[in-house]
Amino acid sequence: MADDPVICTCLDLTRNDIIEAINQYGCKTTDDVADAIEAGAVCGSCIDDIQEILDEVNS
Fold this sequence. Notes:
59 residues, 2 strands, two-stranded antiparallel sheet, mainly alpha
């Protein structure tokens, strides 16, 4: 789905999945997101994308 792209391909987690986790768990860092839903914790290639989402949500 174009409006909800997959960000973490290792775990098939979408942008909305990550936003939901940030809001639900109060994530402030990529490590917080990794602890909450493991996004970014497998291969790490999506860390920059997760950081961009964190910056948007927490601004």
